[in-house]
Amino acid sequence: MFLSGYKEYCQEFYDHNIIYFRPTNRFIGEFQLRTELTEKVMTGIGSIGYSVRVTEQGKGLRTEILRQGLDIAREHHLEKALLTINDQNTKSAHICEKLGGVLMDKIAAYKNDEGEHVMRRYWIYL
């Protein structure tokens, strides 16, 4: 519902030739915050998730999304956040470490889309 409504909103500006404001319909990335350390969070998804579309990578956007996301976590009065990163995702691990992430451990994991893999778990103290 939100997506189709937003697309219609953007299209109206173009259809009416409003040139002083052009909304973007370009999705760049996302940030997810989970505020409770449930078993699912601790053993799988982590308390923070973030991503940037492939065509926008290499521009510092992943670092900025995570940096701003950590600010949001602080606003929710969290003392620490857990990031779980596929061991093969070295760029995300580097960004996490750059922003203060401390490697807690590596664990075996399984996801339908990733199969069996190793996951790094990082704490970032806020």
CA-based gyration radius: 18 Å
Please state the second-level CATH architecture.
Answer: 3-Layer(aba) Sandwich
Going across the major beta sheet, what is the strand order? 3-5-4
Order of helices and strands: HEHEHEHEE
| Oligomeric organization of the protein chains | single chain
Tally of alpha and pi helices: 4
CATH superfamily caption: Gcn5-related N-acetyltransferase (GNAT)
Secondary structure class reads alpha+beta
Q: The CATH topology is what?
A: Aminopeptidase
Helix content: 25-40%
Q: Would you identify the regions where 5 or more consecutive residues have pLDDT less than 50?
A: none
**Main β-sheet: number of strands, strand sense, barrel status?**
3 strands, antiparallel
* Tally of structural domains: 1
Instruction: Write down the overall geometry.
Output: elongated
Query: Could you tell me the strand content as a percent range?
Result: 25-35%
- Give the CATH class: Alpha Beta
Number of strands: 5
End-to-end distance: 35 Å
Key traits:
36% helix, alpha+beta, 4 helices, 126 residues, two-stranded antiparallel sheet, Aminopeptidase
